Amino acid sequence: MIALLLRDLTLAFRAGGGFGLGLAFFLLVAVLVPLGVGPESGILAIIAPGILWVGALLASLLSLDRIFALDHEDGSLDLLATAPLPLEGVVAIKALAHWLVTGLALTLVAPLLAVLLNLPAAGYPWLLLSLAVGTPALSVIGAFGATLTIGLRRGGLLLSLLVLPLYVPTLVFGAEVARRGAAGMALATPLALLAAITAGSLALLPFAAAAAIRVNLR
Amino acid sequence: MIALLLRDLTLAFRAGGGFGLGLAFFLLVAVLVPLGVGPESGILAIIAPGILWVGALLASLLSLDRIFALDHEDGSLDLLATAPLPLEGVVAIKALAHWLVTGLALTLVAPLLAVLLNLPAAGYPWLLLSLAVGTPALSVIGAFGATLTIGLRRGGLLLSLLVLPLYVPTLVFGAEVARRGAAGMALATPLALLAAITAGSLALLPFAAAAAIRVNLR
Amino acid sequence: MELRVGNLAVSRGGLVVLEGVGFTLHPGRALVLRGANGIGKTTLLRTIAGLQPAVCGEISAAPECLAYASHADGLKAALSARANLSFWASVFGTGRDAAGAALERMELTGLQDRLAAQLSAGQKRRLGLARLLVTGRPVWLLDEPTVSLDQAAVALFAGVVRAHLAAGGSALIATHIDLGLDEAETLDLGAFRPRQLRPVAGGFGEAFDDATGALP
Amino acid sequence: MELRVGNLAVSRGGLVVLEGVGFTLHPGRALVLRGANGIGKTTLLRTIAGLQPAVCGEISAAPECLAYASHADGLKAALSARANLSFWASVFGTGRDAAGAALERMELTGLQDRLAAQLSAGQKRRLGLARLLVTGRPVWLLDEPTVSLDQAAVALFAGVVRAHLAAGGSALIATHIDLGLDEAETLDLGAFRPRQLRPVAGGFGEAFDDATGALP
Amino acid sequence: MSIWEFANPRNFMRISGRMLPWFAALAVLTLATGLIWGFFFTPDDYKQGATVKILFIHVPAAMMAINAWIMMLVTSLIWVIRRHHVSALAARAAAPAGLTFTLIALVTGALWGQPMWNTWWEWDPRLTSFLILCLFYLGYIALWSAIEDPEAAADLTGILCIVGSVFAVLSRYAVKFWNQGLHQDSTILKVGEEDPLDVAYYVPLVISIVGFVFFFIVIVLLRTRMLIRARRLIALEARERVG
Ligand code: HEM
Ligand SMILES: Nc1ncnc2c1ncn2[C@@H]1O[C@H](COP(=O)(O)OP(=O)(O)OP(=O)(O)O)[C@@H](O)[C@H]1O
Ligand SMILES: Nc1ncnc2c1ncn2[C@@H]1O[C@H](COP(=O)(O)OP(=O)(O)OP(=O)(O)O)[C@@H](O)[C@H]1O
Ligand SMILES: [Mg+2]
Ligand SMILES: [Mg+2]
After folding, report:
1. Contact E163/A169, CB-based, under 8 Å?
2. Helix, strand, or coil (residue D132)
3. What CATH number matches the domain at C27-52+62-188, 3.40.50.800, 3.40.50.1980, 3.60.140.10, 3.40.50.300?
4. C90: which of A3, B88, B198, E241 fits an S-S bond (Cβ 3.0–4.6 Å)?
């Protein structure tokens, strides 16, 4: 298990492996939106929490197809399935690796990008907290979606279509926490709901994902 | 040449081929942004042209890696390079196929999504015009970027990183045309600049792209 | 560990491609599967390895005893030859030394720090086969193991298989070429081809084969 | 069309892997390249095909006369066998009939409407080789063409090559196994291995090999 | 006769073939009655004028959009648990119908919104959750058509449908939390309470809802029969090719 985590992390840090690129994408969204929307900082400050959450979501979405498709293409997935590891564990580890290189990294750089989008100072801790609590759900749900499209070459865009509706509750509560935080409103309820979604997906989705992998291998 | 165009279009329309998914992504951006930003239609109307342009850009960006990487993986690109077609022509045809299945399709559905984002009625024709003039540039620039990352497996995110800076002028002028159109302001200058960018990239980039392919094959 | 296969039927694309396959593979023995392209060798091996369900019949060995090597090598292009092997060694719990020993055995020690992407077709294949040594499992299922190997490498690999047999392991090998394993028995799969191809019972093909009755 | 190669040196990964390669391939003849794994057969064929530049030396044939078949088959999994071939036939301008004839020649007519994804390893390979027939080019460069083929298919392919030679074509074939082409000459690449590996002249490797002088 | 008789494709074809004309007749009858009554024999609303008549399409379509998903969930569960092939195909058959109902509800809602709320689109929770439902349908259909092997496609779409249902409920709740909205609550089940739907509208509305139900059944039966025939064609072709 630990060997698998280490391998996935090593591969992510190698050239072309995807680490840093999720971050870069997040950065680019934060840069492009002001370019597209125009520079009035009043509007930017209002939309900042939402745009940052959408950016985080897209950044983690785009790296999903690497979770399993690479292993399937080069035959490693067949070999992992015959190795002495439970497939549920493989899914959980791979989702964890994905979170470490995207979700965690995004959370850590988010304050920087918030500056670009003129987020009010009160919003920073809540933005961070909402990302820290919400991004693990994005990784697990994404890993589940990725198992559905394993067999399809370049299923990337289909994967996005499948996963995005599943991301909606996380996005809504996450952005709500960040927005209310920035506006100084009460936010215990959405935060609790966000945490509940994360906990629930962590507990249940690896089983669904392992079932989908078995279907795809046969 | 026509055989190549037909083949690429056939493949795009086959299951998992990518047509419709670019569209789906565009739709998803238009849905996610309000979910993240919150439902006030006044704010949405102001940011609508910018968000739609950012969405169109991301949608065409995400399908770029299919342009060459698939052909490289299965060996077709080697064979195409030794076939009696000029590589510049191959690039141009592939960019054309990409534009037909993404840029053109995006332009045609943009008015629908503009409804979702409460774009003012005056903005519709200009949004359409800006997309029609600007998206060919996105496809050609993207095809050029795709040739740079041919050799890298799943170079998708690196590709985004390389191409996005190149997309900035198109985005800025395109969104400006759409925004001024929605606000009823004069827009001849940005429109002329947008057209100039498109014409210039169409004329020059296929040569750069063909050179990049030759480097990647050796 | 004995591998007994009895009356096995396997399917691909919803059709039964082989049926009534039966053999016993004793420890210390090798069995070579032969048959024309498309007869179902890959399908049979995947079924025995537990990657796809059998249509019917039984397979005695537990998946925990089987090591499967497919057409694809499962190498990560961005990792060095050694890192690739070490990963599988820790997955199978055979420890770090196993990887070094396997590299040595397949004569890859000189290339161990090279990235897998920078190996030639035959070198990659040798590295893929070295993985078998670090699984520590007794029954090897090999799908055309010698593709891309030159004669010296084929002989080297035959030696590795022979040593594995001598240590009490066994091997089931699908191949088109002669490996020089004289002691191996051969099983021609042509005999198990169904007389008439038919859809898998209980699958989509069979369920709808006769769905509408005679068309009016 | 005669292929003359003189004093050719080829490189891979910035190192010269073969040098001083020279041979002449006359119309109607076949030349088999032999050599251990990793000696540089693939590299040599790619260089001759014009896919990568030679380090030095000359190659007489224009790329327009060469048809290259690599390790990968260039098949689109989502297209039928026939559509795959027809595409190449129209790219090479040899017309629709060529595809049908090639399918027939490689005994794939029965599989022509099957998607390429649904072919077995050997069937895919046969389809990849059928592409050579629709190029209409005289000089074939073949990189391990018989990988995954069974004996019948190898014989079939040898027949195709023989017919190609009889029609005035020629073939340069890298392979580890015996094709049964008795009339073919053999060239062992072992002889062209540089005594000492050295970086390519004018490349990054050489430029910085001695960049700092003796370290102080 | 047990319901599982339907699980056998042959029986399904036989029984459904016999029932289809009756359902079709019922569908035509109820739809025609409900819609004609609704459009021509109800008074204009004092506030909404004639636009209120969109109600007779909008509400049934919206209800059926949800019901179609529920039916897909049930048939998917039957496939996953009991592995009846017809049930997998029925789920597949229902998806495009459900998508169409969703789109009808969205479009009629938009047409209605223009005079009522003075906007085509509003990020109201009900509207938003329909948009998300639309995406679920699209993803489900796309996944079915992307996977070649029917067995794997049925399994994977079944898993997607089950997991998706949980998330669909969650997002319904989430968007409600996010925006209180303009759309009125359900009143159809509250007859007799204060401020009910006017009886003049109530009866034709119920009839057209029943009409939509029959219409849905007819479409699903037709499409399932078509998919069964298509599978049979593939099975016969496969036999021919190899035999
Ligand atoms: C695109 C947008 C819309 C969607 C997706 C939508 C969705 C729905 C749904 C799901 C129902 C079913 C209610 C139930 O099950 O009881 C419904 C009912 C209804 N809708 Fe809409 N709606 C939309 C726009 C509108 C608009 C603009 C109006 C007009 C003001 C409207 C008025 C109604 C009414 C009066 C009902 C019946 C409620 C009842 O009495 O049960 N809707 N709508
Ligand atoms: N995805 C698929 N869908 C439908 N049929 C398939 C699929 N893959 C393979 N087949 C068919 O199933 C049969 C068995 O294939 P299999 O790959 O097991 O053959 P094989 O004996 O390994 O052949 P080879 O020696 O060429 O590797 C072949 O006739 C092949 O055409
Ligand atoms: N991308 C690369 N970077 C650096 N070195 C490489 C790369 N690819 C191959 N090599 C090395 O170049 C040499 C020649 O490789 P080549 O693929 O031409 O060999 P080959 O004769 O075709 O071998 P095989 O019979 O195994 O296919 C080998 O020693 C190989 O290790
Ligand atoms: Mg095989
Ligand atoms: Mg080679």
Report:
1. no
2. helix
3. 3.40.50.300
4. A3
